[in-house]
């Protein structure tokens, strides 16, 4: 009897466990279906950029506000009057009084007549827009394809719960017209890419050219296309780099795209621009904060997401991946205000005296000197030990070339061991013939090495000394000294250097 009771209890317990497992599975499946359903609804709510069917709202248009309240109606009526000129200018000057005494009447007048374009109206772009509007800029074009979401509210400058689901460009106009009703907004609900750059970055009504463009895009391909277009067409632009995973506002600074460091988005953007022939001349807002233990980091897409199929299908629009980027809400605001501050100072002609970035020029010059010395030894060896052939020898490499190879092609690490300290560049393969190039005769003779960027490899100083002794001046082959993995890595990185070499100024 006791055995029977025990068996019944076991059966009941097993049944309870199975039932719980089935219930849990059902709940999880339901939650997954609900999540997928919400994601599909979100995707379907974003119009297709190429959809021209009658009756379908184009992506480049914004509709009326959903159920505007009395405050909205009042603000829009006031904005219409102000933009038509029916607004006391003394009231505007009173509102801008602090800017006026800081920038002078002439500076404020320039700002009030300025036309600024902001591409990307999320955390960074919204704060830049709010600052420019409050400072007196009268014409602002906003470009963004996205909508306000609940997760936007931790960093967006003006969005409220009532704005969730509204296009970000429309949200900014809705809120800022209540603060600076005289500001005219040109809303472009559209994803930026090179094919529409001419239209989106074109003149304001009446032919006024943009005084400045603020790049607040977080997609690298679009960012590069924007900066390349501005560079080629002489449009003043400032680009915001990555605010995600950053937490130290004291490390945010403005510098040239060719000199920024400790920033992944900046590095990737700079590398792609250099391959297109743009090596400098674009100011960027970036952070020099280093990543470290316990700090937030960008996580890769989970294996579960990859198993669903083409990663491109997981985004709301093509080429936009679904991943959660850790963002401290204060940092995009810092980036946005720094960008807006730069634009204000530039337009008004206010003196700018930025703290220079960490000096790396001396490091690049030291590496160039090492390359020079190494080439002299190689030439001397090939020419039978003659020292006179090295007098006045030049190498066709600049400090800018050194910077590209170290920072971009080799990512600031030795190709041999990955060590990031005491880096040097040295010729990779032992020349089969002379590397000496002679032009002219006598005192007018010029001697140079035929060294190319693709011939150089990044190593630590100790590794370079060994390489020079055993490969360039010795009898060992690359295969004798390095693994197949290192040989393939160097080959890939040299191809990138070759591509850059074709486009460098």
From TrEMBL:
<dbReference type="InterPro" id="IPR000594">
    <property type="entry name" value="ThiF_NAD_FAD-bd"/>
</dbReference>
<feature type="region of interest" description="Disordered">
    <location>
        <begin position="42"/>
        <end position="71"/>
    </location>
</feature>
<keyword id="KW-0067">ATP-binding</keyword>
<comment type="function">
    <text>Catalyzes the ATP-dependent dehydration of threonylcarbamoyladenosine at position 37 (t(6)A37) to form cyclic t(6)A37 (ct(6)A37) in tRNAs that read codons beginning with adenine.</text>
</comment>
<keyword id="KW-0547">Nucleotide-binding</keyword>
<keyword id="KW-1000">Mitochondrion outer membrane</keyword>
<dbReference type="GO" id="GO:0061503">
    <property type="term" value="F:tRNA threonylcarbamoyladenosine dehydratase"/>
</dbReference>
<dbReference type="InterPro" id="IPR045886">
    <property type="entry name" value="ThiF/MoeB/HesA"/>
</dbReference>
<keyword id="KW-0812">Transmembrane</keyword>
<dbReference type="InterPro" id="IPR035985">
    <property type="entry name" value="Ubiquitin-activating_enz"/>
</dbReference>
<dbReference type="GO" id="GO:0005524">
    <property type="term" value="F:ATP binding"/>
</dbReference>
<keyword id="KW-0472">Membrane</keyword>
<dbReference type="GO" id="GO:0005741">
    <property type="term" value="C:mitochondrial outer membrane"/>
</dbReference>
<comment type="similarity">
    <text>Belongs to the HesA/MoeB/ThiF family.</text>
</comment>
<keyword id="KW-0436">Ligase</keyword>
<dbReference type="GO" id="GO:0061504">
    <property type="term" value="P:cyclic threonylcarbamoyladenosine biosynthetic process"/>
</dbReference>
<dbReference type="Pfam" id="PF00899">
    <property type="entry name" value="ThiF"/>
</dbReference>
<keyword id="KW-1133">Transmembrane helix</keyword>
<feature type="domain" description="THIF-type NAD/FAD binding fold">
    <location>
        <begin position="98"/>
        <end position="354"/>
    </location>
</feature>
<protein>
    <submittedName>
        <fullName>Podospora anserina S mat+ genomic DNA chromosome 1, supercontig 4</fullName>
    </submittedName>
</protein>
<dbReference type="GO" id="GO:0008641">
    <property type="term" value="F:ubiquitin-like modifier activating enzyme activity"/>
</dbReference>
<keyword id="KW-0496">Mitochondrion</keyword>
